[in-house]
Please model this.
Amino acid sequence: MAFSTQNTLTAFRFTLAYAEKLVADLDDDQLAVLPHDGMNHPAWILGHVALGSDFVALLLGKDLLTDDSWMKTFGPGSVPVEDRSAYPTKAELVDTMRKTHARAIELLVAATAEELAAPNQTPFFPEQFPTVGDLATHLVTTHAAMHLGQLSAWRRCVGKKAVLGI
Model:
């Protein structure tokens, strides 16, 4: 059985559904709560995951859907702050995540083998992810899942239940 882009996109679609379940019962005003030092809160996680999906466009030579303020607030090196006014609304965060997610899928489906095989010329893990395709796969699978795991842990810290029943 050969590995396919379709397998990766199936996993990526699951991450969006999982993210939506993780925040479905959260009130907007809860999204910047930091129950423990060093945690990432839901507002930052949703924005960061959305930006990670948007990076797929950047890797494939397209413009980002997000803007400079998103890069500053959610990009590499940004630090979550416990100030709800520093972040977009829950609706905007989820909507942006859906849009960047859908666009990443569209771009990956349309990407050529040559585009995906091009060298990863970003500062983001070039040794671990040497090609555009390698880094794009990380962004839509392990990167998203890692941060959604943080959101699942955050839920437990604030007394919320698991959303997948496992």
Remarks:
- The radius of gyration is 16 Å.
- DSSP finds six helices and no strands in the chain.
- Residues 5-157 form a domain with the Four Helix Bundle (Hemerythrin (Met), subunit A) fold (CATH 1.20.120.450).
- Residues 30 and 97 are 18 Å apart (CA to CA).
